[in-house]
């Protein structure tokens, strides 16, 4: 099973298979998704979820306000539904 991710700011789509993080799936699809540490520490990969749900094995450090505004850590996040993401604030 997989979910579709639409990157609104880049007008790109890719599939995230169950068990892969959003970042892993993007890199497997040769999408140049910003990243560095891949462990939820550098915040390079952060983007905003406009639509859909994600889950984490370990909750990342985000304030309530950031969560409310949709910020996620794609290197740690698994897609629970189809997603629409943007790099724009
Ligand atoms: S790649 Fe560093 S926080 Fe996601």
TrEMBL record:
<dbReference type="InterPro" id="IPR001041">
    <property type="entry name" value="2Fe-2S_ferredoxin-type"/>
</dbReference>
<dbReference type="InterPro" id="IPR036010">
    <property type="entry name" value="2Fe-2S_ferredoxin-like_sf"/>
</dbReference>
<keyword id="KW-0411">Iron-sulfur</keyword>
<dbReference type="Pfam" id="PF00111">
    <property type="entry name" value="Fer2"/>
</dbReference>
<dbReference type="InterPro" id="IPR006058">
    <property type="entry name" value="2Fe2S_fd_BS"/>
</dbReference>
<keyword id="KW-0813">Transport</keyword>
<protein>
    <submittedName>
        <fullName>2Fe-2S iron-sulfur cluster-binding protein</fullName>
    </submittedName>
</protein>
<keyword id="KW-0001">2Fe-2S</keyword>
<keyword id="KW-0479">Metal-binding</keyword>
<dbReference type="InterPro" id="IPR012675">
    <property type="entry name" value="Beta-grasp_dom_sf"/>
</dbReference>
<feature type="domain" description="2Fe-2S ferredoxin-type">
    <location>
        <begin position="3"/>
        <end position="89"/>
    </location>
</feature>
<keyword id="KW-0249">Electron transport</keyword>
<keyword id="KW-0408">Iron</keyword>
<comment type="similarity">
    <text>Belongs to the 2Fe2S plant-type ferredoxin family.</text>
</comment>
């Amino acid at each position: 099973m997989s979910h579709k991710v639409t990157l609104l700011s880049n007008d790109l789509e890719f599939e995230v298979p169950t068990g892969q993080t959003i970042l892993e799936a993007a890199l497997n699809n040769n999408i140049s998704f910003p990243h560095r540490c891949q462990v939820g520490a550098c915040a390079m990969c952060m983007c905003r979820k406009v639509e859909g749900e994600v889950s984490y094995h370990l909750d990342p450090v985000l304030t309530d306000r950031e969560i409310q505004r949709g910020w996620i850590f794609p290197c740690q996040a698994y897609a629970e539904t189809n997603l629409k993401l943007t790099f724009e604030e």
